[in-house]
Task: structure prediction
Amino acid sequence: MVLGETAAMRRVQAPSRGGLDLSINHLDSPTGGLSSAGMRDVRLLPRRARRRPLWLRSLARSRPVSEHWGADRGLPIDRHYIEEFLHAHRADIRGRVLEIKNSHYTLRFGHEVIRRDVLDIDAANAEATVVADLSDAPAVTSGGFDCFILTQTLQFIYRFERAVSEAHRLLAGGGVLLATVPVVSRIDRHAGAGNEFWRFTPAACEALFGSVFGPERVTVQSYGNLLAAVGFLTGLACEDVGTQRLDERDALYPVLVGVRAQKR
Result:
């Protein structure tokens, strides 16, 4: 470009789309193409009303809005999907139920539960009734559970195939595994980058769980869309985005996958 060139000389015509003028002059103009009357109307709006919503402003950041997946702002987006998945399969959460780290979801969604157990590799967890590595747990009795709630865990287990096989072994005949895994997520800041290994697509879940339980006994459901994925990565909570937007599903932009697998 020649120095001193005027705006008129720089004007590049672009084809219009839907009646909009997409020329450089139009986009660079102070009013963004609004008439002077239109600009006055915008300025009459309260400042808060003129601000872009938080979910849109979060795109122009290099740091997240929240370092805690949005938990300090409300309900994390992935938890919204996990709860939707477990609520849909609450009839399976019965009898002898095993859960990871605590029994929060068993208490919330279970019915006719006769025993609650908590599995953790960490013996310091006071809530753990079963201390074991899920990828290698020979000391845990086979067929001891009617339901196993395995949420957001397999990404931390390097030998995840073994973990799924062990989960199958721990279930009684007819028992149900309810698992969720991330497709899109930041690295867990507490576990650290060296302790989180995997992400799972819906196709991977169908192959993985189908190879252990049998494909006809596995149901896979993806949750999320582009806005949910971006919002989750930037630390927005459900309250920031709105459940109506989150509940729109796009198979090309899943945030989380839920798997129901039933043992013969």
